[in-house]
UniProtKB/TrEMBL annotation:
Gene3D superfamilies: Uncharacterised protein PF01937, DUF89, domain 1, Uncharacterised protein PF01937, DUF89, domain 2, Uncharacterised protein PF01937, DUF89, domain 3. InterPro entries: ARMT-1-like_metal-bd_sf, ARMT1-like_metal-bd, PH1575-like. Residues 6-266 form the Damage-control phosphatase ARMT1-like metal-binding domain. It comes from the Bacteria. It comes from Halanaerobium hydrogeniformans (Halanaerobium sp. (strain sapolanicus)). SUPFAM superfamilies: AF1104-like. This is Damage-control phosphatase ARMT1-like metal-binding domain-containing protein. Pfam families: ARMT1-like_dom.
Length: 290
């Protein structure tokens, strides 16, 4: 997905928020924002948002020396998610369709996203989503393809939602298939790394690999050979979150995108009556690329 006009203000907000997390020095913050603006001024419009966000975080790390500005927020979100996990697990287990319920909860977890704002009421989001479910769903298509698949690749997103991904992994393991769970190779935003995945024992439920990319969304040209080999040989791919959608929306593979639509630009890309705030499970061939 190419960079949209709507992305400019979002990028600046993210840069400001990340900078103020790690320094209260006004001069340093001003330098960071000035350099971000300079990079935006010479932006290649064919670049995807995750690629530019990676540039923003390189600037912040260079100016402050802090490798993971979101470390405290990640820890807080993981703690909150783990506290409510037993309740959510019980709800999923007792539902009429635990696989569908696990997908809903995994999508709800996607609302825990520092890319669209730091204040997220996780409990409130879950309670609301239990009532509404998925606003747009290609679940029937996903079920058909799962029945035929020997393996599935899950492309993970943020650390807080990864807690709820365990519910989805639990259900997929009942289908007797090989599951690969891919994470970021380096800390960016609040996205999950292999260290985070091991803390959550996800490596006991799936093979956990790194993508090789440092962007908050999979950019195939930047991924390592191991990931690309698994990606291109997967029977089915479930891609979590908006950043991965932005990186893979025109990839052409058999992908189901599971996310919360978080901005008007994504609403335009997804079409199909999808609106900002909706929980979405959509197959890649339904997406209108811009």
């Amino acid at each position: 997905m190419n960079f949209g006009f709507e992305c400019y203000s979002c990028i600046l907000r993210q840069g400001y928020e990340a900078a103020t997390m790690v320094t209260d020095n006004d001069d340093v913050i001003r330098e960071i924002l000035s350099e971000i603006c300079s990079e935006l001024a010479k932006l290649d419009p064919t670049i995807s948002p995750p690629e530019f966000i990676a540039i923003v975080h390189q600037i912040i790390k260079k100016k402050t020396g802090v490798e993971d500005p979101y470390a405290k927020i990640k820890a807080k979100n993981m703690k909150t998610s783990l506290q409510i996990y037993p309740k959510v697990e019980k709800i999923v287990s007792n539902s009429d369709d635990p696989l569908l319920a696990s997908l809903v909860m995994s999508a709800v977890g996607n609302s825990i996203d520092t890319a669209v704002g730091l204040e997220v009421d996780i409990v409130k989001n879950i309670e609301k989503s239990l009532q509404t479910g998925l606003n747009y769903s290609d679940y029937g298509l996903l079920k058909e393809e799962l029945d035929q698949a020997d393996n599935v690749l899950i492309i993970a997103d943020n650390t807080g939602e990864a807690v709820f991904d365990r519910l989805l992994l639990k259900e997929l393991n009942k289908l007797d298939m090989k599951i690969t769970y891919v994470v970021r190779s380096k800390a960016v935003l609040n996205d999950i790394t292999i260290r985070d995945a091991k803390k959550l024992n996800i490596d006991s439920m799936a093979e956990v690999i790194e993508s090789g990319t440092f962007t908050p969304g999979v950019i195939l040209s930047q991924c390592n050979d191991n990931f690309k080999n698994i990606y291109y040989n997967s029977d089915l791919i479930i891609s979590k979150g908006q950043g991965n959608l932005e990186g893979l929306s025109n990839a052409g593979e058999n992908i189901f995108f599971l996310l919360k639509a978080k901005c008007k630009f994504i609403e335009f890309i997804l079409k199909n009556g999808i609106e900002k705030g909706d929980l979405v499970l959509i197959k890649s061939d339904k997406i209108s690329e811009k």
